[in-house]
Structure formats: structure tokens, C-alpha cells
Amino acid sequence: MDSSEKATTTRSKFSKTFHKVITLKSATKNLSGNGFCLSMPHEKSKNGHEFTRDESRSRNRAALEAFISKLFATISSIKASYAELQMAQFPCYIIDGIQSADKDIVDELRKLSELKQSFLSKDINSSPPHVTLLLTEIQEQQSLMKMYQITIKKMEGQLEAKETQISSTRKHLQETLLINKSLEKTLNSSGCFSVLDNINISSCSNPKDFILVLHYALKSVRSFVKILVTQMENSNWDIDSAVHAIHPNTHFSNRTHKCFVFESFVCQEMFKDFDTPAFSLLNDQYFPYYVDQFRKLKSANVAYFLNQYPNSLFGKFTRSKYLRLIHPKMEASFYGNLNQRKLVNSWGCPETTFFAAFSEMARRIWILHCLAFSFDQEVSVFQVRKYCRFSEMYMESVTSEVLMDRDSDVTVAFTVVPGFKIGNMVVQSQVYLAPARY
User: Fold this and answer.
1) How far apart, in whole angstroms, are the C-alpha atoms of residue 313 and residue 296?
2) Tens digit of pLDDT for each residue in 85-110?
3) Spatial distance between the Cα atoms of 315 and 293, rounded to a whole number of angstroms
4) How buried is residue 258: exposed, middle or buried, by Cβ count under 10 Å (0-12/13-18/19+)?
């Protein structure tokens, strides 16, 4: 508070004054048998001793300093009492506190008025100046303590209000999560609902629809990753070595989190060139084409579509992504041959669970891409560099364990899902977090 800072500055000034008074005390001790001289209006002491000009000047200066000290101590008391008055008025209207603070302000104003009258009448002498200075110093400290106590009470009130708000928000979040889980369970059991049914693509589509379709696409990514990891385990792959090859020197708080490495690997390839027309398969953005592709593919059987239109842009996209994502050695270890790869390379559609999961993932990402380019706004994709500090504005954690126990800073170990920017809307990237390096 400004008043507290001013009070501290004033106290510092009068600490210097106090030392001056101690010096004055030593000087005047020899002039009085009682040890101290009273500041009298005349130039003689009670024993008839006449003061010299220097002594009178020193006595007058000490009296003036004591008067100024009383003046500022009174002002500090007024400020402290006024702060008490404000505290009693907000947030709760406390009548007794208001009346008490109001009475203190009136009393201090009365003292201030008396000091004014004393100054105008040139009657500023008081009890021994050093005594007055000590008393005003105590008064200053009391006012300062009062200001500190008021500040502490105010901060405690704000802290309590914040804790109440956090508790209410957490409760609301838990209720929302339970409702969402219930709705998701109901929708999954019905099997007839698609998030795409309520999205009508147009040049003025709502960018928030992008987030819904993104989640829809990421579900298929995770399904494909589960199948991929299962195939690797069944083929006796060294999972730890594969993880290290993709994201070396990464510490995992839970072994199950290693699946995020493979999800990161798949997303990195599948979302590459997402911000270019038709994943670089077209030279120019062509809005009617994206609308047509979205409507055709949002409810299409992907295997039927690939068999009917193998040379379509979506067919080319699926073929190129499969050949880049699935290495020949990986496919050979899964199936013992490269027949599936040869079929894809010749524009065929393998009838395997593995390729069905891959092509469904490709369909959803292609639909997401068509939706993004239908907004008539600039589309961009961003990755978060390793060891960057976590920012809630641009990132969200794929796990909750690290965020629940964040006594120390955390940094990004690797990006799982890239972030997107469509016009002014930013869609957070999904990252795996690790303790910060020191």
C-alpha cells in the first residue's frame, strides 16, 4: 500500500532525527543538574542561568523537530484509521468497526487542528524534545503495524475467496467430466451417432467445429497406435529401443506412457504438410473441392471409396502416407512378406485389420484437413521444441500426473499432437511433460 511505503519513509527520516536528539541530549546534559533541559519560552532556566545564543538556537531546533515529529505521527495515525474504516466497509459492512474507526479519525483530526493552532501561535514547545520524539516514534510504529495488519487481513480475505472459487470450479469440472463420460458411453453404445452429422461445411463455418473433428480424428490415431504397438510386441520388437530411437533420453513416470512416443511418431508423419493445399497434392486452395470431399467422405466406407476411386486425391494421400509411415522392414516383421505394401503401391486396398485401421485414420485426418481449408482463413501448424517451458496458452498435457504435482517447473519432453492456428483461433498442442533440466 502507498500509505505503508510513505509511513516507512517517514520512520526512516525520524530515525535520523532521533539520533540528532540523542546528540542534543548529551549537549544539554551539562546545562542542567537534572540531566535534560525543558524547552522554555524564555531564555533563562529555573536556576537563573542565562542561555547563550547557540544554546537557545539548539533548544529551538530540538523543539521544532519534536513538533514536526508529532505532526507526521498524527498524519500516519489518520491514514491507519482511514484504512481501518475502508476495511470495515468492504467486503462486509461492520457497523462497530466503522464507528470505532470514524471516532479515531475524528480524534486524530482534532489533534491535527490543535497542532495547527500551536504553530500559528508560535507555541510549539513541549515536554523534553527527546521524550516527544520517542513517543512519536512509538506512535509511528503502531500506525505502521496497524497498516500491516490491515494488509494481511485483506490478503487473507482475497486468498479465502480464491480458494472458494477454485473449489467451486473443481466441483463443476468433476460434474462436467461425469456428464461427458455418461454421454460418451451412451453414444458409443448406440453406435449410430457421428460427430460429423451436426457439422455443415461452408465458407463461414464455425472454427470451433475444428476442435470436435480433431478429437474425432485423434481417436482413430490412438486406435491405430494400439494396433501398431500390439503388432510390434507380437513380432518380438524391442519396444524400449524403438522408443529411444524416436525420442531419446526421455524419462517416463509410467511405463504405459511410452505409447505416447508412437502416437507422436504417427502424428508427426500424418499431419506433415497439413497447412498446404491437399497436403501438397494441389498447387492452389480450391474451396469447392474441400466442401465436396468433406461431404463425400464424412459418412463413406473408406475401403469402398479407395476401391472405387484409387486415383483420387484422398487415394493418393492414403497411399503416400502409408508408404512413408510403415517401413518395409516393419511390414516384413509383421507379415513375413511385403505383399501388403506391393498392393498399396499398385493402388490396391489390402483387406487387413491393420490397413483398415490406417485408412480410417487417414480418412478422418483428410476430413479434418478439408474442414480447416473451408474456413477461408489462414491455416498453420506448430510443434513445440524439446525442453521448452510449459505454457497453458499453447499446450495441454497428455497426462495429469505431472500437472497434479508441479512443485518444480516442467518442460516439454516431446510433442504428441501438433497445435493448430486457424485465423485468430489457437488449438493447443498436446505434449508430454518431464521435470525441468537444471
Assistant:
1) 13
2) 888 777 677 788 788 888 888 888 88
3) 12
4) buried
